[in-house]
Amino acid sequence: MTTPKQFSSCVAHYDPNALPVSAAQEIVRQWAVPRGRNDSDDACLERVSLFDALDRVLAEDVVSPIDVPLHDNSAMDGYAFASASIGTRDGASELTLSVAGTALAGQPFPGTPLATQCVRIMTGALIPPGCDTVVPQELVTREGDAIRFDARTLEPGANRRLAGEDLACGEPALRAGRIVRASDLGLLASLGIAQVAVRRRLRVAFFSTGDELRSVGETLTPGSVYDSNRYTLYAMLRRLNVEPVDLGIVRDDRASLEKALRAATEQADVVISSGGVSVGDADFTRELMNSLGDVAFWKIAMRPGRPLAFGRLWSGPRPGDGESALFFGLPGNPVAVMATFYFIVREALLAMSGAARHALPVIGAVSTQPIRKRAGRTEFQRGIASLDANGRWSVVTTGPQGSGVLSSMSEANCFIVLTHETGDIDAGDTVDIVPFDGLI
Ligand code: AMP
Ligand code: MG
């Protein structure tokens, strides 16, 4: 891990007023190691039943205790037979077999058919002994107790699912670090596994700073605004399935902020604040941060989200004493909170949760309009993407891109990511978009 000294020199390597987003992400990545690495196993592991495992991070590899499927079985409704019998009718393409009986899913055929026989078989039923191929029922002509079909159309082994084809006994079915998705729950159930070891959920304390902030339910006075960042942060944290700890609104004074930061550091793995890190506030906050931990103040070359503090805090009297937590001091502007959360904070939370890296999906889309963009910073504009008449993604911005315009986030369905070097975009250029929606 980078020491604070290396960290500072790393930051100093760049213009502190224009730390590229990629460099900021790299530094955060180095600091955000899985929490609990030095804890005893008990402290960071939990055993949970399948229904409670959704969206949790697996703490151990899950090794398959059985073959799935357990035995060879049919992939189709049809007739099972021995493919060797095809070769016995030299030259003749048409095969006639008598039907010896039936195999249903859960009710195997009780005997062993002869080479001149076949077994009526349904999908999922055990392939009878001696048989290796299934001819689908659509391909046969049935006449009484016999079937006729063109054997040339079938490869030996056709329409047979092999034992262990889905998951082989003794192989890891899911790896540690996996975030358990819908398909994984089904997969675990298919192995007969009722409980899995998952990591303790990351605890993330968050609060808003600002004398102008009012809570929902209070009356707005001139110059005051409702605190929306705590709600956005709460929701984004819930989506990552971390444990949110809401510490409310903190006034813009040193004593209140110090109290909040210490309390947050004591009870959480990560502390996220919003507001109070822009130019006017920086000196006051910076001094406080330095007394509580190793915090390098960043101005990231990104828009929205230029002011952003990142580092480590301690709850004790001196840095290095007591509990420690990673700290993200996000900007106050509501859109900047979301952009910095997704492009700076998210990956750190996942890594600290013990999750394997999950890069955000980036899609190329044609911009249907010119977009003004200054080279030398990464911009995360809000976009509305849709499939055009040719089946390609195209994207249009939501209009005014002020970092306080939260409605632009609700209206959008993607971020348009304009990288550091990129300048103005012409209509028809391809840009990167990151969709808001995931499937599973
Ligand atoms: P700051 O970074 O504290 O200078 O705040 C920048 C802008 O964001 C100001 O207009 C603040 O009023 C606004 N702001 C800060 N915190 C919040 C919040 N929690 N909810 C809504 N707006 C906020
Ligand atoms: Mg403020």
UniProtKB/TrEMBL annotation:
<dbReference type="InterPro" id="IPR038987">
    <property type="entry name" value="MoeA-like"/>
</dbReference>
<feature type="domain" description="MoaB/Mog">
    <location>
        <begin position="205"/>
        <end position="351"/>
    </location>
</feature>
<keyword id="KW-0460">Magnesium</keyword>
<dbReference type="InterPro" id="IPR005110">
    <property type="entry name" value="MoeA_linker/N"/>
</dbReference>
<keyword id="KW-0479">Metal-binding</keyword>
<dbReference type="GO" id="GO:0046872">
    <property type="term" value="F:metal ion binding"/>
</dbReference>
<dbReference type="InterPro" id="IPR036688">
    <property type="entry name" value="MoeA_C_domain_IV_sf"/>
</dbReference>
<dbReference type="GO" id="GO:0005829">
    <property type="term" value="C:cytosol"/>
</dbReference>
<comment type="function">
    <text>Catalyzes the insertion of molybdate into adenylated molybdopterin with the concomitant release of AMP.</text>
</comment>
<keyword id="KW-0501">Molybdenum cofactor biosynthesis</keyword>
<keyword id="KW-0808">Transferase</keyword>
<dbReference type="GO" id="GO:0061599">
    <property type="term" value="F:molybdopterin molybdotransferase activity"/>
</dbReference>
<comment type="pathway">
    <text>Cofactor biosynthesis; molybdopterin biosynthesis.</text>
</comment>
<dbReference type="GO" id="GO:0006777">
    <property type="term" value="P:Mo-molybdopterin cofactor biosynthetic process"/>
</dbReference>
<dbReference type="InterPro" id="IPR001453">
    <property type="entry name" value="MoaB/Mog_dom"/>
</dbReference>
<dbReference type="Pfam" id="PF00994">
    <property type="entry name" value="MoCF_biosynth"/>
</dbReference>
<protein>
    <recommendedName>
        <fullName>Molybdopterin molybdenumtransferase</fullName>
        <ecNumber>2.10.1.1</ecNumber>
    </recommendedName>
</protein>
<dbReference type="Pfam" id="PF03453">
    <property type="entry name" value="MoeA_N"/>
</dbReference>
<keyword id="KW-0500">Molybdenum</keyword>
<dbReference type="InterPro" id="IPR005111">
    <property type="entry name" value="MoeA_C_domain_IV"/>
</dbReference>
<comment type="similarity">
    <text>Belongs to the MoeA family.</text>
</comment>
<dbReference type="InterPro" id="IPR036425">
    <property type="entry name" value="MoaB/Mog-like_dom_sf"/>
</dbReference>
<dbReference type="InterPro" id="IPR036135">
    <property type="entry name" value="MoeA_linker/N_sf"/>
</dbReference>
<dbReference type="Pfam" id="PF03454">
    <property type="entry name" value="MoeA_C"/>
</dbReference>
